[in-house]
Amino acid sequence: MPEKRLEGQRAIVTGASGGIGAAISERYAAEGASIWAAGGGNEAGLKRVIEACRAAGASAEGRPCDLSDGTRATDIVREGSEFLGGLDILVNCAGARAPGPVTEFSDDEIIRVFHVNAISAFIASREAARLMVPQGSGRILNIGSIFGEIGVADNVLYCATKVTLHSLTRALAVELGPRGIRVNCILPGTTLNERTRKRYAEDTDYAASRLQGIPARRFAEPEEMAALAAFIVCPENDFMNGACVTSDGGTTVTLAGAR
User: Fold this and answer.
1) How far apart are CA 232 and CA 109, in angstroms?
2) What's the mean pLDDT in 125-152?
3) Is-contact 39 13, C-beta < 8 A?
């Protein structure tokens, strides 16, 4: 990598034990940032990510954190900023999926998914802002989804939580922008991770049907989202604020054209 665009930056990443969150942690480390990685139940995955960040020369630490109680995000930001000696970048990437018909969701399931996908991000952003406002600088990056912009049957709960993130991004950008803090959001399309790779390998017909809706005719790799995430928070992109950036191989424009 010819230039470390995040040299000296201090970053907290949630959802860092696998998928997009893991890839972002490792890319930020390679770009020169120090990392506090907060993961879910995959402790082995989180350990591997932290070790990979250190191998890239970064100061890195972290721990598992169950964000089904979103108030635990306060501890993540507090512990992370103490380890890092401050905070320049927060990435809210923790996520939970809950497919199924709306009539079948229990109250507990609705509350759990909102806590993981939305409430934890709101609380983490609040805590980050409390650190960033006095220093007059900072970056908050939310990981939303194209499902937050379209209606998808049997995914109403996931859709509702992700559009909450998109709205949070825009409102925070307006409030915090004058104070030197930029807030943006990535809206990924279908991105491969351990779970989806296994499912598509086992059900090739299903995978083929999903690809038909993607003009690029392939799924995204987590590293592609990480590359975008690195650009969004880097100093040369300082003017971007309040943007919800879609990276989906053309899926949403195809849907818009079909209407």
Assistant:
1) 33
2) 97
3) no
Whole-number Å distance between alpha carbons of 156 and 86:
37
Q: Is 158 a catalytic residue?
A: yes
Residue 255 is predicted with a pLDDT of 75
Q: Which amino acid is at 217?
A: R
> Per-residue pLDDT tens for 147-171?
999 989 999 999 999 999 999 999 9
Q: 143 - beta bridge partners?
A: 186
CA-CA distance, 12 to 244, in Å (whole number)?
20
CA distance 218 to 214: 7
Q: Output b/e per residue, 72-93; b: 16+ Cβ within 10 A.
A: bbeebbebbbebbeebbbbbbb
